[in-house]
Design goal:
The protein is mainly alpha-helical and 135 residues long. Helix content is 48%, strand content 12%.
């Protein structure tokens, strides 16, 4: 009997999304977008009832929501691209200590750095290409 591992996170690698399990194994996620028509046809009350009926995916309580912290934007961008801190810092010319400070919430990126992170998030390939040494 095959046991299913719990999905911990998704990872973008080479333009393809992978599900990463708690044991570190990865499986490729399908390219096909999900069909949301059944969910769109439900009322808010029906959606909430359906969510509450699933013992593995209970809606968060108000107390749980208050304890949650947002993922810093720099960390979100890096995770989306699928790079380690060191790789991200090297590729995009950001000092590793600065990146760690941003990701751990010790410091907020200034306006220029926030804009740079937005550009990286929207088109990392173009930024990489622009940063390549001229030949």
């Amino acid at each position: 009997m095959k046991s299913e591992s719990t999905l911990v996170r998704r990872r973008l690698k080479g333009g393809q999304w992978y599900a990463v399990s708690a044991d570190g194994t990865e499986r490729r996620l399908p390219d096909k977008a999900p069909d949301w028509s059944r969910l769109d046809a439900m009322t808010d009350a029906e959606k909430l009832a359906a969510a509450r009926s699933d013992p593995d995916a209970q809606p968060s309580t108000e107390a749980q929501l208050k304890r949650m912290r947002r993922v810093p934007f720099a960390k979100h961008v890096r995770w989306t691209i699928g790079l380690s801190q060191q790789e991200f810092a090297d590729v995009f010319g950001i000092p590793i200590g600065t990146l760690r400070d941003w990701e751990q919430g010790r410091f907020e990126p200034d306006q220029a750095a926030q804009s740079y992170l937005k550009v990286i998030a929207r088109n990392p390939k173009a930024v990489r290409k622009a940063l390549e040494p001229a030949e």
